[in-house]
Design goal:
The chain is an all-alpha fold and about 210 residues long. It folds into 2 domains: about 140 residues, Type II deoxyuridine triphosphatase (all-alpha NTP pyrophosphatase fold, Orthogonal Bundle), CATH 1.10.4010; about 60 residues, no CATH class. It is about 70% helix and about 0% strand. The protein is built from 9 helices and 2 strands. Strands 1-2 form a two-stranded antiparallel ribbon. Helix 1 packs parallel to helix 7, helix 2 packs antiparallel against helix 3 and helix 7 crosses helix 9.
Length: about 210
């Protein structure tokens, strides 16, 4: 997993560079993005007792992956990118996942994570792992979903996300939903996994959005 974590750190840096070549010096409020994504995650899970709601687990996991993007950005800012950093993240994840209990309330674990993020303006791998455990996500799924969303983010940037010309809904479905279907159809262990995702997204975009 350390190798995959090192790959994710590099992918995140490349994504940030695509948005802003000087991103590491901009002091972006990554912590703010994280707690707002946490609130969106809770909406997808459902928390309103006064109305019927159903948990959309795929969207919950996608929000977790968005949080992971921002968390990796904080880690890179503070620690850089190298094998030792990747190994340390791996150790924290594995320990937290093995120690965490499924008995804790998922929404409470999200609130605990968000509260810690706000108070420290940092990223807790341990508390993030508690949320992973709460929705039955292991490290292999974390990697698979991260690569998928990272590719989608690149795809968005390549097709006008910043200037407002990108079309996010394709034939009645948001691009995130198309991503879930695309990844489910591909070999995640393939050496061309990233490229295969991009190719499949491009095909759908041309057929359904343009």
């Amino acid at each position: 997993m350390s190798v995959k974590l090192l790959s994710m750190l590099n992918m995140q840096n490349n994504m940030n560079l695509k948005v802003n070549m000087d991103w590491s010096q901009q002091n972006f409020a990554w912590y703010r993005a994280i707690w707002i994504e946490s609130a969106e995650l809770m909406d997808h899970h459902g928390w309103k007792w006064w109305k019927h709601q159903e948990c959309d687990i795929d969207q919950v996991k996608l929000e977790l992956i968005d949080i992971w993007h921002f968390g990796l950005s904080i880690i890179i800012t503070h620690q850089g990118i190298n094998e030792d950093v990747a190994a340390d993240i791996d150790k924290q994840l594995q320990q937290a996942l093995s120690n965490s209990s499924n008995d804790s309330d998922f929404l409470e674990s999200v609130e605990k994570f968000a509260s810690n993020t706000l108070s420290t303006r940092n990223f807790s791998v341990d508390l993030f792992a508690d949320m992973m455990k709460g929705c039955n996500m292991d490290t292999d799924e974390l990697y698979k979903r991260y690569v998928g969303k990272n590719v989608l983010n690149f795809f968005r940037q390549d097709h006008g996300y910043q200037d407002g010309t990108y079309i996010k809904e394709w034939s009645g479905m948001e691009d995130n939903e198309h991503l879930v279907e695309v990844v489910s159809e591909l070999d995640t262990e393939s050496s061309t996994f990233k490229d295969d995702i991009y190719t499949s997204l491009l095909k759908r975009y041309r057929e359904l959005a343009l």
